[in-house]
Design goal:
11 helices; alpha/beta; globular; 38% helix; eight-stranded parallel β-barrel
């Protein structure tokens, strides 16, 4: 299972939110590159970079941060937040993104999202399936849609989606443990899905459990920043 630390960006700074609420913003580092380099120094190869300003303003904003991290580390970065147009994607890929994540766009403009899958390939495009009470949420989680989580994922698998990041918003940033039951159900009701678990990771012991369920990767945010999980533990997990 891939270990994918998260860096969320507001105003060019590394922050975390609770349940996606911008009013809960906590700044952890003024310099995201420093954080990324520390991850890399502990054997981590992947990074989940979220442009929270972009998610709010509905277009890419913090691409300079992406460019800086991509050019000064070897991390494979998946980038999301506010990607709505072909131009947003062009900027993200030109700035060094290895993959992009589309969430709101997949709900509100499926034709565009499907065209991205055709143009760039399923290995480059991740479906962001973020849910509250198993209903898909959009616009930086500021809105809830009427789409049911698992049917939404299954429908997009028919369009050749293979990577899905699923965040249970009720768990995100709360350090109360991930939604094991939900991930288990998703994996049972889909075929060959590369499911990346996100939200609620709070202790190291949860990682082997997610791996045993069959998750392809897991995104870890606040647990690292609040020193609940050490980078040394992650390094050992990667090497084991």
């Amino acid at each position: 299972m891939r270990i994918i630390p998260a860096i969320d960006i507001i105003d060019g700074k590394c922050v975390r939110l609770s349940k996606g609420d911008y009013n809960t913003k906590k700044i952890y580092n003024e310099n995201p590159l420093e954080v990324a380099k520390e991850f890399e120094a502990h054997g981590i190869e992947y990074l989940h970079l979220v442009d929270l300003d972009g998610a709010k303003s509905k277009h890419i904003v913090n691409h300079k941060v992406l460019e800086q991290i991509a050019s000064k580390t070897n991390l494979k970065i998946d980038f999301g937040g506010g990607l709505k147009t072909d131009d947003d994607l062009r900027i993200a890929f030109e700035s060094g993104a290895n993959q992009i994540t589309g969430g709101s766009i997949a709900v509100k403009d499926p034709d565009t999202f499907i065209s991205w899958l055709a143009k760039f390939g399923a290995h480059k495009i991740i479906l962001g399936a973020d849910a509250n009470n198993e209903k898909i949420a959009v616009s930086g989680w500021l809105e809830e849609s009427d789409k049911e989580l698992i049917p939404f994922i299954v429908a997009y698998q028919k369009e050749n989606v293979s990577y899905v990041i699923c965040t249970d918003i009720s768990k995100d940033g709360m350090l109360q443990g991930p939604s094991f039951d939900l991930y288990e159900r998703i994996l049972k009701e889909t075929n060959d899905l590369k499911l990346i678990a996100s939200g609620g990771i709070s202790t190291f012991d949860e990682l082997p459990k997610l791996a045993a369920l069959g998750c392809e990767g897991t995104i870890i945010g606040k647990a690292i920043y609040e020193n609940r999980i050490s980078l040394k533990q992650l390094e050992n997990f990667i090497l084991s």
